[in-house]
């Protein structure tokens, strides 16, 4: 384990007790959970489970306190106010809520400042996860807006100059990933926010691959909206978060409507609560929120500066392990360049699925496929790649085992002849 963390983090994770020799390099898809996160959710279900924000019983009050306490801690973890965090199903849901809210505003069902009109422009990058692409495609189709993007180069990287070229006076939304889930590229958020603000555009940040791995201050970054997901940051599945600046959320049209998010309802109209409750219709993922709160407590206990330092060490080791093997092509920043702790690559003459199976047979878990980023892979001239992604529990021994196994792949499949 890295000296930056200073503790044996793996001992906190039951997965590694059950699989002592496992090399788990698929954190970019979903992270393992420490025992205290599992216990926090289970203890809540055993002892304090009840409906939240409904009724005046002691049980309801205790459950509501746990639900809202988790929100406060998650908000503080990402540099937000508690009213600026909305519980969602996951990050995909959060991004859709922004796009759907803008679609409603465009149809006259909300504040005009969120409306898009024919000829307005939405700017993204060619490297986006489908969750930060398809909602904007549909918003453009509904409103007559134009979708524009910064293209990637032969390494799968887009540039600030490329973003600058496609942001213009008609730009209304700029949506981009803080960290690419394929290349590990880390976006220059402050510079993009400045470009967007010059033309009065809203910024939407996909923070799924950054929130678990580096200190994150969403207010400080200046973005208008952001999305992240618990299951990628040591927490439960089934819950994510939408961040929105408080002044925007209170006026933003809710994409989900129903019970618990209203003030007055008649047979013709409904008025909505302030944020965050206006976006949380129906029964919420209460126990999952408790687990989410425990997950950020755990990460805070490690210290996000220490987490980032540990993962920087792992990231450079991963890239070096890939780059030293003949016939293996790294996607994204090279060794020594600024990047997150994940490495995607293409093995000449061997399909990514075969690479993944070979590594899996040796106890090494990675991700194969297009990683929900088909346009990026198409630009790279391939249908799929293999990705190794690290987390707080990853070690240099894991990287060494991965590198040794990867070096055998082409020979095993006869691709080195």
Automatic annotation (TrEMBL):
Its cofactor is pyridoxal 5'-phosphate. Its EC number is 2.8.1.7. It catalyses: (sulfur carrier)-H + L-cysteine = (sulfur carrier)-SH + L-alanine. Signal peptide: none annotated. CDD domains: SufS_like. Residues 23-402 form the Aminotransferase class V domain. InterPro entries: Aminotrans_V_dom, Aminotrans_V_PyrdxlP_BS, Cys_dSase_SufS, PyrdxlP-dep_Trfase, PyrdxlP-dep_Trfase_major, PyrdxlP-dep_Trfase_small. Keywords: Pyridoxal phosphate, Transferase. GO terms for biological process: cysteine metabolic process. One of its GO terms (molecular function) is pyridoxal phosphate binding. Belongs to the class-V pyridoxal-phosphate-dependent aminotransferase family. Csd subfamily. Catalyzes the removal of elemental sulfur and selenium atoms from L-cysteine, L-cystine, L-selenocysteine, and L-selenocystine to produce L-alanine. This is Cysteine desulfurase. The lineage of its organism: Bacteria, Bacillati, Actinomycetota, Actinomycetes, Micrococcales.
